[in-house]
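Trying the structure run again after the queue cleared.
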Amino acid sequence: MRTVTDADFATEVLSADRPVLVEFTAKWCGPCRQLAPVLDQVAEEYADRLDVVALDVDANPEAVSRYAVLSTPTLLLFEGGEPVRSLTGALPKRRLLQALALTAP
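Done. Tokens:
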């Protein structure tokens, strides 16, 4: 899973030619650490149709403010430069895939 910042958010997320799942995370966030292996699996299994990236909320206040992220982990799915789904909290893989409407690869 790649990391994005305020500096490259527009290029890596908003201008992407396919869906991008952004995890708004923090080093101190316990649920974020729980979610990390799930997101790594999703990134690997769906690499042909979805990018999964992480953004540190403490180091990147512009994106946090722009998308009104109030808690971590927050997941935003972007398509065509716009957020189309929002999820909060550490979710099991099956529930995450259902919420994102992803089918098995």
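The radius of gyration is 12 Å. Worth checking whether this holds up in the mutant runs.
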